[in-house]
Amino acid sequence: MINYSDNKLNKLLIDGAKKYYDYLDENGKGLILFDILGVERIFEEAGKKCLYKVRLDKKLKNTEGLQIQVRDKIYLPNHVKIILWDEDRKEMIIQVINKQAKEELAGLEDFDVAEVKVVLDLKYLVARTGKWFESHDLILPTTAHKLDAVKTFDPTSKSQHSAVEFCLAKPFSYIWGAPGTGKTKFALTNATLNLFRAGKRVVIVAPTNNAIEQVMRCVIDRFDQEKISRSNIIRLGMPSKTFAEAYPEVVEVRGVSQIVAGLVKQKELLENILKFKDERETFAEMVEVLKKRMSGKSGELSKSAEMMLEAMRKEFAEKERLYAGYEADGGVEIKRQIENLGEQLTEAEKQSTDERINKLNIVGCTVDYYIGMIPQGVEFDHIFLDEAGYCNLAKAATLFASDTPVTFLGDHFQLPPVCEMDDDLISGDSKEVFTWAQSALYLADLIENGAETEYMRYIKKMPPTFNNLPKINLTETYRFGQNLLDILCKSVYGAKLTSQNEGIIIEVINAPKKSFADKKRANPDEAEAIKQYCLKNFAKLENAAILTPYKNQVSLLRKLCYRFIGDNISTVHASQGREWDTVILSVCDTTDKYFTNSNNIRSNGKLILNTAISRVKKRLVIVCDENYWQTQEGQLLTELIRNKTVRQ
Is the pLDDT of residue 497 over 80? Predict the structure, then answer.
């Protein structure tokens, strides 16, 4: 192994984190507040625990660094723990675990919701990363595995099998592939399976919650097919509700999703029983009152009124059937079931996370969780970083604390990490912050060339050299057709790739720019055209998203199209790590093109467009001023439009 504790690298990373933190703090950035729409207590056990269901006003983009703010006080995860996130309902289950917090938050469901906030604190994550480098040296691995033989299941191409052999024979490696080449589903999963069968321990990390769950789904499904018990796997951190329900055995607190769902169901049942007691006493009286109000001059009920009353009687009879058995004992049985579920939750929590991390072979988590929550002294035999191009260099460097082989997987032709600090400000005394804006794929170059050289290469948007990071390419895609692939190879990849299927459909909706919005980079004509498309093609939009390069256009699209698409309306930058069957791309630009200008290196236009295309599994709908873009020679967007499959 090569230890870099004697050079300036650690100082660079510590200073970069400090200066980035200071910038966020001084400019009111790095904190995202979520309003609370409602709080409901779902379980309370005297002196032990209290669970609340909290409904938010919008979806979470990240689940690391979450804190609860009540009035002016912040409660950290060791006081109030978020144990489950339901993305569809925008609800989270929180558990109050600190004695003082329990006292202060008693009766939280009765607080004014305006006094309660969920806070996503990115500054906390930055500070935690900087602190990591104060107590760790950076070590570049030099030792590779010596496996007797590498076996792969169902290899569909020679390059896929070679990629698995390659990463298992190198101490540090990068597997590159365009969408649909099998980076995660084949290469990472096969490599993990080989290491598991050799008795090795593996940790898989990714920059976002969506990304790590996508990876873990692939790994778990493969292990299921190989009849390997899920008890060998743990997914650390807060899972989405859908993941926890599909893979309850592998989440940090086993079975928590089902237990919490049971608590909610039983609590609702108990409330309904108590309501039913009151309804029974007043139902007959209420029917008589309604009869009088609904009677005509003749004193007789109309046919529709009779039908309404009959429906009420049937509804009451059904409630009586459901609740009568419970009502007889005053809800005692339901209360007993709630208490029993609470005991199950307590037992589930006793399964020590630290013990499972030390014992199990396959561990998955976000990079932020790895930095802050993996106990000191825990060792792994291999580390995989998926979506490496979207992980910043500073966080990725924390994976290099021992002589453990590391494999990056990703596509460096997509967008780099998001940094809140603009390039113009990453200069002078703040140069070190480039380590938060630059991709993990530049780490080997930084070690080899030093900070000043890599800072200048960052400013010039130069690609990674891969001189000291061995790279292998996956060359066959099962996503794009050959025509689209040829365009991407020419405009983006600069390498020859081959297609193994018919590819995606490209539609173009012509929306000439006739009007101007109040805000810059918003296009009302495109937004209206997308609304009409959604109305006409609603059946196609079950798994769909609307993407655009600009935040102002996102706001406009949400006003017009939320009822069709829901929360899947975002900037291209925010879509990283996710995929949809149909992606509608609102271009916005014409003569003032910026993020859509594939020849503008500074704006990353080429990478933005390629990222948008990479989110598509079946159908790409480009909405733009087609007449203008048809005339723009040398533009990637123009080539896509000219190769449209369907004209709208």
Answer: yes
